[in-house]
Amino acid sequence: MKELIIFNVIYKWKYLLAILRSKFTKTNEKSGIDKLVYVAREADKNWIFGTKVRKLSKFSTLNAIPYFHPKLRNLPNADGYYFIYPHYFCRAIRHNPQILNKKNIVMFTHAHYTTSYSKTHIAWCLNLADKVICLNSQVKKDLINIGIKSNKLEVIHIASDPNFFYAHDRNSGDVGFCSNFGERKNPELVYQIIKHMPEKHFHIFGKNWEKFEKFNLLNNFSNFTYHNNKAYTEFPKLYSNIDTFVSPSILEGGPVPVLEAMLSNCVPVASKTGFCPDIIDHGDNGYLFEIDADYKEVISLIKKADLLKTNIRETALPYSWENCSKKIDNLFLSLQS
């Protein structure tokens, strides 16, 4: 009730005003899709969101361009807009009401609700979009539960680059993690796995792990190497040094590093969050565990991963940026009146 009151009093009138303004905005009468804009913030250029809009627009056949703006204003004129994050669509409506006369597709990675962007707020705005892309099946169920119309929801798994990440022979026995430090990345489980598996060497690719309260203990383990804040260009080489990739997160939309590791022919051992249950066939091309699993369960799966002979890369090749972009193109084309 509180979030509904906050939305109605502080935010809803702004959207109603934008909708009204859109009614008086002159638009072309054509019904086709000849130009798309992939939208992100200026701050995203060197982050994963920036990579996503550049890659997806690059492979689009619908004259797509990436567009970055610090406050998501002054969007170029186009027939359709793709927003890489739901909050961006909400903000863009208020500053660019003319987009409500065009086709809008929004990517929903994972839930991140705040006082400003509550479930009520996000659901109301996303129902103004033409389509909402869910990165996994669970997200679709969650969005239906908060009131988003099911006919607006499409599941399309996010992608990676098979030309950037290359296969390697699994022969080192090493294990890797890839993430920035954060509680939803399940750092305690990471620590316990490394502590209780001294016969294995572990690597973390990421940053801010110094903030982990047990980092000094972790960093003193002889079977641990921290690759702090490495350039993304170094990631293919980093993945080539490990055989097994562990993703212990409590909440994810992807996670994209799972795909990167799979394209590098690493065996994924992942928690059942994000798209992992959709792309990993337990026992065939990797292993899955519950998000509340203890370190003993995960260690047993890491040992099983050593014995798996599957060509993991082959199972991940369908999840390329090119294939993902084509699916989005088709979604826009399906919206033509």
Largest sheet: 6 strands, parallel
State the total count of DSSP E strands: 12
Whole-angstrom Rg: 21 Å
- Amount of helix: 25-40%
Distance between the termini: 38 Å
Fraction in beta strands: 15-25%
Number of helices: 13
- Compressed to H and E, one letter per element, the order equals HEHEEHEHEHEEHEHEHEHEHEHHH
Mean pLDDT: 93
The strand order across the widest sheet is 2-1-3-4-5-6
Give a written overview of the molecule.
By secondary structure, the chain is α/β, with parallel strands linked by helices. Helix content is 36%, strand content 16%. It has helices spanning 2-23, 48-59, 86-95, 119-126, 137-145, 187-195, 215-219, 235-239, 256-263, 276-279, 295-305, 312-316, 321-334; strands spanning 36-40, 64-68, 80-83, 103-108, 131-134, 153-155, 175-178, 202-206, 224-228, 244-247, 267-271, 287-289. The strands form two sheets. The protein has a six-stranded parallel β-sheet, sandwiched between helices. It has a six-stranded parallel β-sheet with strand order 9-8-7-10-11-12. β1 (36-40), α2 and β2 (64-68) form a beta-alpha-beta unit. α1 (2-23) packs parallel to α4, α2 crosses α13 (321-334) and α6 packs across α11 (295-305). The model has no long low-confidence stretch (mean pLDDT 93).
